[in-house]
Amino acid sequence: MTFPEPAYVDPAPRVAGTTVAGVEHWYEPVTLTAEMIGKRSSRPQTVRAVLELYRRLSADDYVLALTRFYQHGIERYGEDWRYSDIVTALHAASSIIRPASYLEIGVRRGRSMAAVAVTQPDCALFGFDNWKPGYAGMDNPGPEFVEAELRRIGHRGTIELVKGNSHETVPAYLKAHPDAWFDLITVDGDHTPQGAAADLATVLPRLKVGGAIVFDDINHPKHMDLREVWHRYVGDPYRFSTWEYTSLGYGIGIAVRKR
User: Please, what sign has the CA dihedral across residues 14, 20, 23, 27?
Assistant: First the structure.
């Protein structure tokens, strides 16, 4: 299977506060690691923070099911429980990185974007989704609903939500905005191997040095190829530090760009 290569632009700008200037001759300048984000994402206090976020959002069946799952884990195992998913990962990443700019492919009702909005209310948010009616058998009300949800939980920054096929809309947006760079990115769109690879190849070159990317469903039983795709794009330890959680749920991957 042939996958597109990311067209990196070097030197990329850096995320403020995550890098040290003047050490490049010996070390990469990045002081943040994906493991730092991952460990924070799986702690009970982060899960509790996401539970509180879910209480503030308009719930659907999936959020209600996740709420029961979270509550059971914490009530049964207390501080020993460890769990990570896309929302806990983004809550942790946003809390640590404090992004000024965030790009997301696969927004749906805005649950994952809300984790960034609630921790960094002034962050500029850019979301891309088809907003297909009845997606996953549930209501999928569209970008107006998502923006209203984000504003309701206190987001103050700019919000730009683009409807359409991410393989068309994201490259078009980045071509029209050559100076657009992102501190934090999520890819949770097309789950075919070719589609996920195309999204990763498109956005990775626009991730700042010291920034993080989150990739969902690397352990999903219906999408087992996604983990291989993830490794294909972030497996170079010279360019990325990585962390994965696959013990429970559908799995999550986190990578921090080192160069």
Answer: negative
Q: Given this structure, which CATH class describes domain 34-257?
A: alpha beta
Domain ranges of the chain: 34-257
258 within 8 A of 10, measured Cβ to Cβ? no
For 178-188, write each residue's pLDDT tens digit: 999 999 999 99
Q: Residue 134: left if φ>0, alpha if ψ -120 to 50, beta else—which one?
A: left
CA distance 186 to 215: 6
| Interatomic CA distance for residues 108 and 139, integer angstroms | 9
The residue to which tokens 């929302």 are assigned: 87
- Indicate the DSSP class of residue 137: G
Distance of alpha carbon 158 from alpha carbon 124, whole angstroms: 5
pTM greater than 0.90 (yes/no): yes
* Interatomic CA distance for residues 141 and 201, integer angstroms: 29
**Run of H or E residues at 36:** helix 34-41
The tokens describing 45, both together, are: 């206090």
Q: CA-based diameter of the chain, in Å?
A: 53
Phi, psi of 251 (to 5 degrees): 85, 150
All residues at 6 or more sequence positions from 224 whose CB lies less than 8 Å from its CB, including other chains: none
Q: Mind listing the pLDDT tens digit for each residue in 121-147?
A: 999 999 999 998 877 777 889 999 999
CB 123 within 8 Å of CB 100: yes
Place of tokens 């991952």: 38
Beta-strand relationship, 252-257 and 207-216: antiparallel
Beta bridge partners of 243: 254
Classify strands 252-257 and 240-245 as parallel, antiparallel or unpaired: antiparallel
Q: What tokens appear for 223 in the block?
A: 């999408």
